[in-house]
Amino acid sequence: MDVMLFAPEITLVLTGLAVLLIGLFIPTDSKKILGYLASIGVLIALLLTVSSLGTEATAFNDTVSIDALSQYFKIVFLVVALLFTIAGIKYTEGNSHTEEFFALGIFGTIGMMFVASANDLMVLFVAFELASLATYALAGFEKQNAKSLEAAMKYFIIGSLSAALMLLGISYVYGATGTTSIPAIAASAGVLASSPMGIVAVVLLVAGFGFKIALVPFHMWAPDTYQGSPSVVSALLAAGSKKMGIVAALKVFVVALIALQAEWQTVFAILAVVTMTYGNVVALKQTSVKRMLAYSSLAQAGYITMAFVVLTPLALGGGIFYALSHGFMKAGAFIATAAVTYMVLSENKDSPDPDHIDNFRGLGKRMPITAVCLTLFVFALAGIPLTAGYMSKFVLFSSTIQSGFVWLAVIAILNSAISLGYYAKIVKYMYFLPTDQEKVSEPFPYTVALIIAAIGVLVIGFWSEPFVYWAMEAAKVLIPGGM
Amino acid sequence: MMPILSMIVLIPLIFAALTLFTKTKEQARVIALTGTVIVLLLTVYMYFNFDSTIADNQFEELIPWVPSLGITYHLGVDGIAMPLILLNAIVLPLLVLFTWNDERKSPNKFYAFILATEGAVIGVFTALDFFLFYVFWELTLIPLFFMVSIWGGPNKHNAAIKFFIYTHVASLVMLLGIFGLYFEAWKLTGTPSLDIPTLIAQFQFIESGIAKDMIFLALLFGFIVKIPSFPFHSWLPDAYTEAPTAGSVLFVMLKIGGYGLFKVMLPMLPFTASPNLMITIMAALGSVSVLYGAFLALSQKDLKRMVAYSSVSHMGYVTLGAAGMVSLSVSGAMFQQFSHGLIMSIMFMSCGIINNATGTRIINDLGGLAQKMPKLAVIMVMTFMASLGLPGLSGFIAEVSVLAGSFVNLPSYVMIALLAIVITAAYHLWALQRAMFGVYNKKLGTVADINTFQTFSMGVIAILILYFGLNPSPVLEMMLTNSDQIVSLMAVMGV
């Protein structure tokens, strides 16, 4: 086995350990350096992953595979992790637990990357839990803040429940096929399809993944958790760990359980429609921007779920492409919220709802860069042309029509129109409602993270060809043979 | 060859970005004027190199963009697009001049939005790839949305949101139609393509009649809402009325709905499963719009709202003429788009001036303005006459071609529209008489006439209305070639 295959993961492990270790020996006020260290480590891992694009290999007795799909999702996770670490530099300023913050983020990312590489349900489960445990702790990072603790508790309890369901589902699959290897399960299609255990497994796994991806009705934790967690962590949760759920679900359903397609396809169709509609409608009424973004995140997950229903290479490619775009848009939106929260809290330490939409009043004047970037992110999320969000919706929705699911595409498109209502509300507050407050200086790390995300949104929207191509290559791993 | 189409699309967008960075009103308006004048010069150059005798796309530019999805950067103009580009290129510099002395907050953004709208609208007229077309189509929404919501009237936020959501939903339905066409053609040819001429050519080979009709109706809906036609017009009066004067003029320049009708719908029409039904739908919507818009205009108390409803009425001729399906009616409908753009610009400019000078737009509160504002009165009277269809002015040419042309195939619908002529004359004359003539209403205080810049810009447009009313051929010839081609297609199909 070539150790270089895991160079990005190894880099991250070393970075995470170094951050932890160095953090023990330096005083709080110089811990800022840890954030830079973490960002550099993640950036190197990202570059290593990009440079190894096109590699195909398996390792550890075929339990881990490196292919176009895993490489693609690793890039998604690393991009989100990079935004997380850069924004984290400002967020952790003066915090004595800085090293834990970055180390948890990095270890969580390693877990996500192994989920993307997993070729065996046990590896997938363990990696999933590695990522989940790290994010549970991150959600509760603000120990003094009751909301943060509540967020972590809800996330932890529901996350554990979903892990249990998933594990039970995996055990049924094992019971029916006698193996946990994903290709081997796919090969024993006949056994699964004829066994009642297969159906039970599907039910359990849909519920398990439903919790992780936050599909309605398994979503209850998500708005509270995204709202209560520090905004930078919400970015990691919504943009990173949710994508982990998606890539895992792709591997489990589209590859391993393809024999039971008829059973789970309908379920996903219903879940997709309910999730996108519920997410968008409820988001309309929110006054907390983080909560609004949380519900919009539900809606976006609903769109991506359409790929499971349509199941053509183009649709899967569209779903995968959407995951990348969503990584930039959603992480960017949450980081912009983090910048606003920071501004509000630095003016009034006891502000009860720092992410209340009233605090976005006149942001265009007060924090022009943040406001412009946030405008771009919400317009991209709404699917305005020449942004990443539009290109993704274009591929995903059009592939839905291609395969004859016109009704589903119509519902998705109508939903997309509803979503404009609340996205435009944020823009309206930032630019049209007057404020008498002064301009503030924008925190540098947040600005850097926002600009990186904004460039990503624009580049993917404008110069989509390579990204669409990668996504299509990744989709071919799921359905060999291609279009 | 010079990529002239890219230039007339990109120059306004680049100048829009430049304008954003200006600090003073003086800088902003100079850059805006420079940008629009460059576009005008390039368009005039194009006009003189344009071959009116052929119906094909000219000045074409083609660059692959996202090959794996069949998306290209494909531009070109034909006799449908060229007059509308000309309209925008002429009116926009005059609009900048018209607002030369206005005082308003953030003039840099104001002029940037004017330029951005110009770039987006010309983009729609030149795009020959549906992806690009849709991008520009949606891009027109953003500057206009901001235009209304920043500088609009008291009800601006609601009007802006209503306009945005209403037309965005319509665009999404249109997008569904585009997707349908795209994949049906993909199935037939085996290669993805979003090229507009290619897709229109492939439309006839689609087997399923239901698919054809659904695609056609989805696209039609997108265009009809933008025109807008009854019963999808309700966003228009609010948006037009609440917008600042320049915004209203920009809305008037937004002739993309009618353009789509000629460019996309009519060439596809004979190949739908039920072309006669489609014609009936279009004719009914058109004629009802003409009459209904006129009735609503008659009942308005607010001058600007009256003008907005008269726009619904006038745009009904476009839909009706398109459905008429003879060369005269189709080219008349195209000419109506051009003429309506000129006429409505002055109508909205006049409303803006009256509102600024007197503080009200309520017709009954005005009176005798002609005594204090003689220059405005001359231009307004002429434009109102053009709007009600007086012979010798451009509006007449358009309306008479539509009505006479459509009568051949659609006599009953033309009868409905004819009823509106009386009402149209009534509300125009009645409004003019009450607002401009009679005894001067002393409560209005002292009002000054229009300034030199305003006189110049409105005067030039007024002269054009007269000129094209007497001699429509410079623009009509371009339209005739294309409408002949469309109609001959119909004849071949026996529709």
In which order are the strands of the major sheet of chain A placed? Answer: 1-2
Based on secondary structure, the structural category of chain A is mainly alpha
Poorly predicted segments of chain B? none
Greatest chain-chain contact = A-B, 27 and 29 residues
What string, H for helix and E for strand, traces the elements of chain A in order? HHEEHHHHHHHHHHHHHHHHHH
How does the major sheet of chain A shape up? 2 strands, antiparallel
Distance between the termini of chain A: 32 Å
**Relative strand content of chain B:** under 5%
Low-confidence stretches of chain A: none
Q: Overall 3D geometry of chain A?
A: globular
How many β-strands of chain B, per DSSP? Answer: 2
What is the helix/strand order of chain B? HHEEHHHHHHHHHHHHHHHHHHH
Give the helix tally of chain B: 21
Overall pLDDT of chain B, averaged?
89
Feature tags:
heterodimer; A: mainly alpha; two-stranded antiparallel ribbon; B: 495 residues; mainly alpha; two-stranded antiparallel sheet; 21 helices; 2 strands
